[in-house]
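Hi U.,

Before I forget, here's the chain from the pilot set. I'm dumping it here mostly so it's searchable later in email.
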Amino acid sequence: CYTYLAENIKKHVSIPIFSSNRINTPELAEQVLMAGKADAICIGRGLIADPYLPMKARKGDLRDIMNCIACNQGCFDNVFRMMPVTCLRNARAGNEARTELKPLKEKKKVMVIGSGPGGLEAARVAAIRGHEVHIFEKEDKIGGLLNIIWVPPGRNEFKRMIENYTYWIQKHGIRMHLQQEVSIEKVKEFNPDVVFIATGSKPTRPPIKGIDRKNIYWANDVFSGDAPVGKNNVIIGGGATGIELAIFLAKYGTLSRESFDFLTFYKALETDIALEMLHEGRNQVTVLEMLPKLGSALGKTTKWVLLDKCDALGVKLITGANIQEIGDDYVNYLDAADKEQVINNIDYVQSD
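Structure:
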């Protein structure tokens, strides 16, 4: 999105101008160059995710690129903590010499239980090394939580991971066993040499009075479309998931970018009104967090962005909240000063 700066500078100088910042694919880089917006491209995070990106692009192996998803968790966040750079996508980043993929001494039959990101990456590496790899997944598709983690605003690049692994499963001959619930008996029957358990985790249900009411849903159910969205929502938990859920709920039903472009281009709507419809929160959202600070697990480069979005969307953020009871249309809690507070007329309660 900052290529316009390079383009403007290029108009006034005679030296080569480089453009950078989230130019994360060879296709996008080529578009910038062909449009004459810059003379060369800088790639940072993309080369941490896949150091061989330029080589693969030159060969035309674009589908083999391990795409950066802009999570910042292992790169920018670690830099601000004065820690070594790692990568959510590239487990070998910074440890290439100690994690060399050595030739096989013995080919093994590998059983991977679960096709979330951990199971998929374990299967990919095992297959590259030459093992016979089988993935067992109880659902009818791969990805696990990857299928919903890309839904919150700003996380759509996570969806690319599913596309990547779908290709690698085919390329490396990994055998898929979908809709297969695995038991000890099935493992014994399959008789693998190695078993990787990558079944993920389940959310814990907090011991709150009324937590089993019908108007209470998990964050994942909201992201997957299996839970309704109300006009007045209360979120229990202000961690990373809770904050992203708050933004998702507040923006739910706002004008899409495609509609914005169409309506403003054809002057069907005033630009100021369209911008308001694009960015202004439509639903009332309150986040109740027990700890004194929100987003305790969020990195520095992500936290301020998400909290700023909450502020712009009118999300009410309350810390030090000790929830006492959830009713049919209310939530009762003690605030940081131990005073009893009630949020009335709520439609739904979501837990992160």
